[in-house]
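Predict the 3D structure for this chain.
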Amino acid sequence: MNFDVLTLFPEMFVGPLKASIIGKARANGLLGINVWNIRDFALDKHRIVDDTPYGGGAGMVLKVDVLARAIEAVRGHSTAPVIYLSPQGQVFNQQIAAELAKQPRLVLLCGHYEEIDERVRQEWVDRELSIGDYVLTGGELPAMVVIDAIARLLPGVLGDETSSEQESFQDGLLDFPHYTRPASFRGLDVPEVLLSGHHELIRRWRLKEALRRTWLRRPDLLKTKELSTEELLILQELEEESSAERRLDTNESD
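Done. Predicted structure below.
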């Protein structure tokens, strides 16, 4: 898969995209990332990319002519989607990452300053994505987040193909707790079921703990997930256990 990133600050991408899993994927030819400086598409000698907004107001606006030239030059004759990283966009999540991972190529546009000229949105942008309901200085950090999340889903990037399948949000649930050696540390013990070697008991324990975490921390995820019969029964167990604990606490306080 290939990413083309349009930015005013290409130097921001040097370190993060050369390290860890992303760096290895690039070195192994599994992932291509090209970073383009938007200023290179300005025609004046000062390489001006922004101007004051029509109608007045604070801040500067990225120019339509510069961005149009940049997008058209980078995308060429391909049909690669152009994604604008913006706080006004659809909130990025694991499902969107999985959808975009099927694309052979993506063009990511990093905004800066006050905004981009609205005509760029209308004519050259295919989709807008946000990584959360807050405002950042520019689209560079969101672009890195999107690249990282999508890259993990590409074949061969993680090595073990089952790794991404077991992560939070992949099946609509938060991840279950993980443990490793030593089995006991300062009175803190690994759950016995994980030491049993009984694969079915371990599978069910992990599912139950994933449901427990989601139920306690992100109940909103359960409202949109299509739950299996087993998952519904486990949720019923969790509710009964919670009710029993509340009754016990009430009796003890009395």
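Strands lie at 2-7, 32-37, 50-51, 61-62, 82-91, 105-110, 115-116, 127-130, 184-185, 188-189.
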